[in-house]
Amino acid sequence: MTSSSRAGLVVAATTTLLLILGAGALGIVGPGGPVDLLYVGAAVVALVGAVSVRLRPRGMTYAFAAAAGTVLAATAVVLALGLHRSPGVSLGDLLGLTVLFAGGYALAAWFCSRGPSLAAAGEGAH
């Protein structure tokens, strides 16, 4: 594993930790609740994805990009359902957290994509 992919893994792990703590302790959509599970889904995508590709840089690039997309999709669902208008929900906070979490996973994907090619990394041979 290259230093760039290690950095990606650290960024993704930090983003996942913040997302889980944020959803569990504080709530992302208002004071929290079942709708926050949409965001926890991004953490699941990142974790399952990274494990399923055996922490290979190219695979982690796709897994973390998918996690970023999941965060954006969760926010799109919240906005489409009008949940951002609920009491105790701040649209600014919701969008800020979306940028934080999706940006964290996107940055992790970018770091992982900066590694050597598959052939140079020896990932093609098993």
Topology (elements, then pairings):
Layout: H1 3-26, H2 37-52, H3 57-80, H4 91-113, H5 118-121
Helix pairs in contact: 1-2, 1-4, 2-3, 3-4
Description:
The protein is mainly α and 126 residues long. The radius of gyration is 16 Å and the shape is elongated. The protein is built from five helices and no strands. Helix content is 72%, strand content 0%.
Helical proportion? over 70%
Shape: elongated
Question: What is the number of helical segments per DSSP (H or I, 4+ residues)?
Answer: 5
Note the run of SSEs as H and E: HHHHH
Strand content: under 5%
Mean pLDDT: 91
Euclidean distance between termini CA atoms: 15 Å
Q: What value does the Rg take, in angstroms? A: 16 Å
List unreliable stretches of 5+ residues.
Answer: none
Q: What does this entry show, briefly?
A:
It contains 5 helices and no strands. By secondary structure, the protein is mainly alpha-helical. The longest helix is centred in the N-terminal third of the chain and has 24 residues, at 3-26.
